[in-house]
Amino acid sequence: MKSLTTLLCLLATASHAAFSDGWVLWSPRDEAKPAASTSQTGGHDGKGALILETGEGEQWIGCWTHTLPVEGGKHYQFSAWKKASTMPTARRSVYARILWQDENGKPVSWEEPAKQGYAKGTVPRAEPEYPNVPDGEPKQWIHCESTLRAPAKAKQAKIELYLQWAANARVEWSDVSFAAVPAPAPRKVRLATIHLQPKDGKNPADKPPQYAPLIAQAAQQKADLVVLGETLTYYGTGKTMAECAEPVPGPSTEYFGKLAKEHHLYIVAGLVEREGKTLYNTAALLGPDGTLVGKYRKVTLPRGEIEAGITPGHDYPVFDTRFGKVGMMVCYDGFFPEVARALTIKGAEVIAWPVWGCNPMLAAARACENHVYIVSSTYTDSRKNEWMISGIFDHYGDVLAKAEEFGTLAITEVDLNAPTHWNSLGDFKAQIQSHRPPALKE
Which keywords does UniProt give here (predicted)? Predict the structure, then answer.
């Protein structure tokens, strides 16, 4: 009797032929080809499904593929439903790709040269795109949807629906569509950071008012988000962190909340938080309605904070704002890739970073490796030893704006709907979910 693996390979070999509606199975190796079948009554809505299945081993790799005509320069919405069985790392095994091609099936290029990064000044090839394919619960139907712009020279789009690297796995794809849609409106946001050492006064309550004039200046320049320093009510007091601690929400968040409401913007302020007997190094996000949107408790603690009795946080919250999703990290967090990566995985498009001091190369790395905007506010004199700056870092890790002098701010405008296409890699942020390795088990 033939083994299940052999039977699956034999079935997969027969599946080279085109199925209904132009879908064809593809695999780089016959011996690693999943079994392919269709169901006329399956799928999310009972109107049909494309099925891939594997046997023993993790060598499997293959996809359903279909090529459709497109008009260069237009936007298209990829939409599909998928249901997958339990597998070790579903996000790496089940995903979709879109390849932009000319009329001969060859790759095309984008229109503009790369502004930064690798091969700056050369026009990037339109690398494969990775629509958003959420994990979801095993054996449940999950909707996948993304809007993509076709390069000007594109004449067709090749859709690929993958199953790979999972033993005894099954995925069904259904209701797959790729339709022209209106171009999405830009999501422009003005990001600002304040470069200030709040030296005046020896009491925590003396510190927040020192930021008020600069917040007003940021508002005059139409800032949407303003980032302030770390543990700002502790800076320069000569007191212990415990003596400067307060509830969050509390007096400082109430003060900054009033400024946020007055100027109709978001403010991130670094504070020492007390909850009962526990102290945290916390970043608080205040919204334009004056309320506390949320807070982040610093997860990685340097020795000085451990010795001061600070407790680490455990979560990586990401908050919805009027312009997009915002995450926060604090100072020492920047030395570790896990924090910014966790925020990005949860959807952060902007990371606010109150930071006493850090290596700016790490700020650039966190921004670059996650394709996320980072807004830092530091107490370090940026002119000395090329150390930490108060600035805004873009998806390439480059500094878009920087505050040179204490008592000033830096501000810049970005479009959160504009993808960053790297030479060789394409839109790297879209690939993180399916390409990043599994986390280490402790």
Answer: Hydrolase, Signal
Q: Which of 9, 331, 358, 368 is catalytic?
A: 331
Decide if 69 contacts 180 (C-beta within 8 A). no
What CATH number does residue 394 fall under?
3.60.110.10
Query: How many other C-beta atoms are found inside a 10 Å radius of the C-beta of residue 176?
Result: 22
**How is residue 216 written in tokens?**
């007003």
Instruction: Give the containing element (helix H, strand E) for 5.
Output: helix 4-14
* Domain encompassing residue 130: 4-182
Catalytic, out of 53, 230, 305, 349: 230
Q: How many CB atoms lie within 10 A of CB 215?
A: 23
Dihedral sign, Cα of residue 206, residue 353, residue 308, residue 274: positive
The structural domain count of the chain equals 2
230 is catalytic: yes
Residue of 83, 295, 298, 325 marked active site: 298
- For residue 430, being part of any structural domain is answered with no
C-alpha–C-alpha distance, residues 408 and 8, integer Å? 66
CATH number reported for the structural domain that contains residue 25 in this entry: 2.60.120.260
The verdict on 224 and 289 lying in the same domain is yes
- pLDDT tens readout for residues 378-387: 999 977 767 8
Strand duo 49-53 + 61-69: pairing: unpaired
The 3-state secondary structure of 24-46, one letter per residue: EEECCCHHHCCEEEEECCCCCCC
Question: 69: helix, coil or strand?
Answer: strand
> Are 54 and 22 within one domain?
yes
Predicted model pTM: 0.92
Residue 298 annotated in active site: yes
207 and 112 in one domain? no
Which of 182, 212, 244 is at the close of a domain?
182
Cα-based angle 69, 70, 74 (whole degrees, multiple of 5):
170
Sorting pLDDT into bands at 50, 70 and 90, what band is 17?
A: very low
Phi, psi of 184 (to 5 degrees): -65, 145
Q: What is the pLDDT of residues 23-50, one digit of tens each?
A: 999 999 999 999 999 999 999 999 899 9
Both 114 and 71 in a single domain?
yes
Same domain, 173 and 205: no
